[in-house]
Design brief:
Layout (H helix, E strand, L loop, with lengths): L1 H4 L11 E5 L24 H13 L4 E5 L9 H10 L3 E6 L4 H11 L2 E5 L4 H8 L4 H15 L5 E7 L7 H10 L4 E6 L25 H14 L1 H5 L7 H15 L12 H4 E4 L5 E2 L16 H5 L2 H9 L6 H4 L10
Parallel strand pairs: 1-2, 1-7, 2-3, 3-4, 4-5, 5-6
Antiparallel strand pairs: 7-8
Helix pairs in contact: 2-3, 4-6, 8-10
């Protein structure tokens, strides 16, 4: 199977990508996510990040991805980035974009790539974010960064759900209007427990139903026909074939009228997610590994007997979390 062809070295000796969830809070109130309900304001301590950087060098990490919550809400985010950059790591920022303008001066010097959340044209984006003027703030932030660093890559990620699936063409047009370099799409994750949701959790009008599939079919066909240039030049990251799997086939399976796309991922072998409290996860959605990096080196936690046993027994084609995952990682190294 394709997922088996990816390298899966064990014990893990190289982690090309490490995701740091540096802030537990968020400045949006999106319907498809409950992270914003976290009022603790927890932050990943700067001192811990600095301690981990040397260990990440030993694990051959090249890219550090800053996520959250909203990473730009961290009180020492600039210092975290400066420390990582001084050690030679490439930095990718995942952000709502609402604070880009405020932080544009150091971001333009200290970040290698930015991905902003874009839910659609202005009215749709504002409604889904539940923040007045969210689109205008996003536009102002992108403009501020562009004025200081015209060549800094800024892409959009759009989560498709009930509230925006009819607006794919308009969303691509909005990304062009905002001056972005690319846009990618993924289906909304609705599993309970993910994105700080309670378990049980109702889908709350997020997932598409079987009655929505004909409309989605029509919207996708229109996108393929009218945005051929954007597919050809890579502005839309996915090919039409890949979007068929990521959106139509996925929502079809979610509605119980088809099979989920086969998973092509090796995230647990080439990356790790470090939570705000320091726990290490093999990816965004699986349970944390036993152990804590305050007490043990990162490498020992990743290659503990329970961690290796779990990876070696993981069947991504049957595992209920992998099978329904909307955000996979496939790396050749």
């Amino acid at each position: 199977m394709p997922s088996q062809a990816l390298p899966r070295p064990d014990p893990v000796s190289r982690l090309p990508v490490v995701i740091l969830m540096i802030k537990s809070s968020c400045n949006c109130r999106c319907a498809m996510c409950d992270i914003w309900r976290d009022k603790t304001g927890r932050e990943m301590p700067l001192e811990l990040v600095e301690d981990w950087l040397e260990q990440l060098h030993a694990l051959h990490t090249r890219e550090i991805v800053l996520s959250g919550g909203e990473p730009l809400m961290h009180s020492e985010v600039e210092k975290i980035c400066a420390a990582a950059r001084s050690c030679g790591f490439r930095l990718t920022l995942l952000t709502t974009g609402l604070l880009l303008k405020r932080h544009a001066p150091w971001i333009s010097r200290g970040i290698d790539r930015i991905y902003v959340s874009l839910d659609g044209p202005a009215a749709v984006h504002n409604r889904i974010r539940n923040i007045p003027g969210a689109y205008a703030k996003l536009a102002a932030g992108i403009s501020a960064v562009r004025s200081l660093a015209p060549n800094l890559p800024i892409g959009a990620r759009c989560t498709i759900q009930q509230g925006n699936f009819r607006n794919l063409n308009e969303t691509v047009a909005a990304a062009r209007q905002l001056g972005l370099d690319s846009i990618s799409f993924l289906a909304a994750d609705i599993l309970p427990g993910h994105f700080s949701r309670p378990d049980p959790w109702t889908q709350n009008g997020i997932a598409l139903s079987s009655t929505d599939l004909p409309a989605l079919r029509s919207v996708l066909d229109r996108l393929y026909a009218e945005k051929a240039r954007e597919f050809a030049d890579g502005f839309i990251v996915e090919s039409p074939e890949k979007l068929e799997h990521k959106l139509y086939q996925y929502f079809q399976a979610l509605a119980g009228t088809g099979d989920y796309p086969a998973v092509h991922c090796n995230a647990p072998w080439v990356s790790t997610v470090i939570e705000t409290d320091g726990r290490l996860r093999p990816c965004f959605f699986h349970r944390p590994y036993p152990g804590h990096p305050v007490e043990q080196p990162l490498e020992q936690i990743i290659n503990s007997a329970p961690a290796k046993d779990w990876r070696q027994s993981l069947d991504m084609l049957r595992d209920p979390i992998c099978k329904r995952c909307v955000c996979t990682l496939a790396r050749s190294e």
